Amino acid sequence: MPEMHLTITIDAPRERVFGVFADIPNAPNVIDGIDRIEMITEGPVGLGTRFRETRTMAKMQATEEFEVIGFEPPAHIALRCESCGVEYVADQRFVEQGPGAALVDFRMRSTPKTLAAKLSAPLTGLMMKSIMAKALRRDLEQLKAAAESPSHAPA
Q1: Which residues contact 70 (CB under 8 A, 6 or more apart)?
Q2: How many CA atoms lie within 13 Å of 40's alpha carbon, on the beta-carbon side?
Q3: What are phi and psi of 135, to 5 degrees?
Q4: Domains of the chain, CATH where assigned
Q5: Model confidence over 67-126: pLDDT tens digits?
Q6: Residue 95 pairs with which residues in a beta bridge?
Q7: Torsions phi, psi for 151 (to 5 deg)
Q8: Are 44 and 22 in contact (CB under 8 A)?
Q9: CA neighbor of 32 nearest in space, from 54, 15, 11
Q10: Are the C-beta atoms of 86 and 62 separated by less than 8 Å?
């Protein structure tokens, strides 16, 4: 599973869309697959922010530690984590689509780092790609609903 690419158009200003996506502490209130977020670093979300995300995916719960490795409001946020010997980088770009709309361009690449991960990559990559694509598409749809909702106010 070297790279996954998803896009979604959201009917809200780019700044608002970015705000919803970057509101990491509030993610469990927006994305039903995220059970909890534990902030490791203090202060507002930005470059270097670290947090633990516990999520349920395919009826299994897992906790991963993430770091914000790219942060350029309102245009870009990138997250990195390592799990089971694989590095994952999620790169999200926010492109203005005229007044009041934004395109979210989401790309996630995975890079096996350990020998075990490299050996198992062909098999696990095929199995995980459809599970992750489904979960990520659902996440994007729920973030879209939050950004388009007049009652949702990102922190």
Answers
A1: 47, 76, 77, 78, 91
A2: 11
A3: -65, -45
A4: 3-148 (3.30.530.20)
A5: 999 999 999 999 999 988 889 999 999 999 988 999 999 999 988 887 877 777 666 666
A6: 103
A7: -85, -10
A8: no
A9: 54
A10: no
